[in-house]
User: Which sequence fits this backbone?
């Protein structure tokens, strides 16, 4: 069994609260997330952290393949690395985790860190991710990329949060 935590603090950092008391958080994934975030912050004064989930059609019209997430990750990273906006490179870093929950169909939790000096709107990334995932699956079906937007309207936990190391409250 992997090391897990039920806490909402990891290594001194506030993390997304659990949906319920049974939801576990895997320590190895949290460590990798922190490593990538710190690397992004070491290279950019502002970063945006964006999360989305990638799903397959529920009608079984597409057979899931582990190649799909590899192709998607490669194409998303390649597309974002090629963009330069006002002399700022997007410089994407990402981490994904496969989950098989109540069905035989996996879905993927995808987290992305980008240079927030280059892109300031999370929906720009959502649009790109949606196009690339549909292209990867060779489908036109909508709704396969879930944007993980916060329904509680708590800005501290909203998707697309910008971390600015030059702000006074940065620690």
Assistant:
């Amino acid at each position: 069994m992997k090391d897990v935590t039920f806490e909402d603090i990891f290594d001194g950092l506030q993390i997304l609260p659990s949906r319920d008391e049974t939801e576990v958080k895997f320590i190895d994934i949290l460590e990798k997330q922190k490593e990538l975030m710190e690397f992004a912050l070491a290279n950019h004064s502002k970063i945006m952290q964006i999360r989305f989930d990638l799903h397959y059609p529920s009608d079984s019209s597409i057979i899931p393949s582990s190649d799909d997430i590899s192709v998607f990750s490669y194409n998303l990273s390649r597309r974002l690395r090629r963009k330069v906006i006002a002399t700022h490179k997007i410089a994407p870093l990402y981490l994904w985790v496969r989950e098989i929950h109540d069905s035989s169909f996996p879905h993927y939790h995808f987290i992305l860190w980008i240079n927030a000096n280059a892109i300031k709107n999370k929906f720009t990334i959502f649009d790109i991710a949606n196009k690339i995932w549909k292209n990867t699956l060779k489908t036109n079906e909508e709704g396969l990329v879930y944007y993980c937007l916060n329904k509680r309207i708590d800005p501290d936990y909203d998707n697309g949060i910008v971390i600015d190391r030059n702000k006074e409250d940065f620690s």
Q: What stands out?
A: The CA atoms of residues 37 and 160 lie 13 Å apart. The radius of gyration is 16 Å. The mean pLDDT is 88.
